[in-house]
Design a protein that fits this description.
Elements: E1 2-8, H1 16-25, E2 34-39, E3 43-49, E4 62-63, E5 69-77, H2 80-89, H3 99-110, E6 120-128, E7 133-138, E8 147-151, E9 154-158, H4 161-164, H5 176-185, E10 199-200, E11 205-210, E12 213-218, H6 233-250, E13 258-261, H7 266-278, E14 284-290, H8 298-308, E15 311-317, H9 319-333, H10 342-354, E16 359-361, H11 366-369, H12 374-386, H13 406-409, H14 413-420, H15 435-442, H16 450-455, H17 461-466, H18 478-505, E17 510-512, H19 518-525, H20 540-546, H21 552-556, H22 567-570, H23 577-582, H24 585-591, H25 596-608, H26 614-635, E18 649-653
Parallel strand pairs: 2-18, 13-14, 13-16, 14-15, 16-17
Antiparallel strand pairs: 1-3, 1-9, 2-3, 4-5, 5-6, 6-7, 7-11, 8-9, 8-10, 11-12
Helix pairs in contact: 2-3, 5-15, 6-7, 6-19, 6-20, 9-10, 9-26, 10-18, 12-18, 25-26
Length: 655
Amino acid sequence: MCGVAGIIDYRGKTNTVTAVGTMLRAFSHRGPDESGIYHSPMATIGNVRLSIIDLQTGQQPLSDISGRYWIVFNGEIFNYIELREELEKKDVRLRTRSDTEVLVNLYALYGKSCLSMLNGQFAFAIWDKQKEELFLARDRVGIRPLFYTVTNGVLYFGSEIKAIFRNSEVTRELDPRSLSQIYTFWTALTPGTAFKGIFELSPGHFMTFGRNGLRTERFWELSIGPNRTDLSLPEAIERFNELFTSAVRIRLRADVEVAAYLSGGLDSTTTVAYIRDIEPGVLNTFSIGFEDKDFDESKYQEEAVRYLNTNHRAITCSSKEIAEAFPKVVWHSETPLTRTAPTPMLILSKLVRDNNIKVVITGEGSDEILAGYDIFREAVIRQFWAKQPGSSLRPMLLKRIYPDIPHLRNASPNILKMFFGYKLEDTSNPLYSHLLRWNNSNHIKKHFSDSVRASVSGYDPLEELSGKLLPDFDNWTTLAKAQWLETTVFMSGYLLSSQGDRMAMANSVEGRYPFLDYRVIEFCSSLPDRLKLNGTNEKYLLKKLMTGRIPESIVKRPKQPYRAPISSVFLADDKPDYVNEMLSERMIRKAGVFSAESVTGILEKVRKSAAASEMDNMVLTSVISTHLLYHQFIDNQNQDLLNEPLNNLKVINEI
């Protein structure tokens, strides 16, 4: 795992080595082991490396055997051993044992077609000396990040936005339309980001940049609707077991120790159980618990550890620790946040790194591909209720899927109707499954300043998203539509970023996700709905598969969404000084995103309320995180966090 950065300037400026070195120092936490820069008259590309495969000879940048193509690479190609054998059959003789060299030689042979051969998580750049053209690509579901901008004909790219901002030619400004998206979907829609003019290469896409400009194409697309298989449950279990075993096995490939997260839920417990079957022996696992018992899953973690016999380390997270770490979370996320949930993941990855471990396997992705989230069941129940909107019994079904939310456990039918009835009968809307969630998020925008409100007047993020739907989307089932939206919008833009790559790599830890092996995704996408969501029984296939293989209490436990406290974090008496500063009228007016009067009102409401609503908490988090982002990236650009050391720097100069 690594970080990449570069500048393509056809004017042939000579100071780009220094500039790219400065970019790399902005995120050397992504690759503290080695660093390197390749420099030619038009292209300067660089890399910081977290050494995991081929520790001795895999330093980047490196070239194909002809020397024509030069690569910087962030990620892992898990099937590189098999791909290496294919290259050797074609008499390609490699100099290293790295997956990076396999990748650049595949590109030399097959060009963009090599992307379909890759099983991995990646973001890479390849400079073609002969064509004087850059090729950039990002993995199918967006596990690894890649950002870019073009200013005055010059391309700047990097694994993190802060690196691009190290160039004075690049302007730094929040984008009101992107903020409108973030406060709807919890993330900007790719290729947009929170910053005007800064773009993210969309998952499953590649891009070329040459003298004629920039061109982007898609090489993979998630399709859940058509081409369903008609497998029986036993047949589906057998096939899934084969695929998932392979997915876990190849993700254990490393020249360093591989550990795992064990949260006590079905997904991580399943993953650890497979690891134990494939590689018996000592397995280090890690988890996080909460002092606030409303969020804690420690008892399930302990049960899983006893059953699977792992060498386990756990840490308990307090509201004070979350408050203290939150500015660092925003710094690494590079986007406004509506929740504090990424923060414990940052704390957990530090525990992993403190134990000298670089790689963890996690259970992310299972909820998306096997229909584990409450929002999927909620959509099915709401659609059932919509057939008899006046019913008092049908909305009561919603209480079954939210046992963890106190104010819903004992709610009356009228309360449930008020809470879940938003656009209940709009079942023909292709975004139906998510309308309620996004409407709740929209409350944040009620607190926008007059200037931001004016700049997004007439703009509807839902209309923009509707324009990105696949041509046959209307013909999909309700569940298929919901899974596509959750995976393409929320998973790549928020979960794998703010809670995944960014929080792990902040502490130089690589996360690996067997549920997101593209073969597993494509198989699950082909399954009939009943094998994923059986009535209101979520992840039906996985539960049937794991019965008898992990503790029964974990198989049967209700889904508990991963959450972290908010009000107790930011409103405690011993809260950090930055909280008052970020909520001050001075900062509100300086950033210009929110209304000072409106923010004051929501603060008074939250402080007076014994139990602030979820929407109030989201507003509070959004204001603080947006102001932190403005302070760190636009007003201040945390200089103390940008000048990280570059270790073992190698410069290849072809001028």
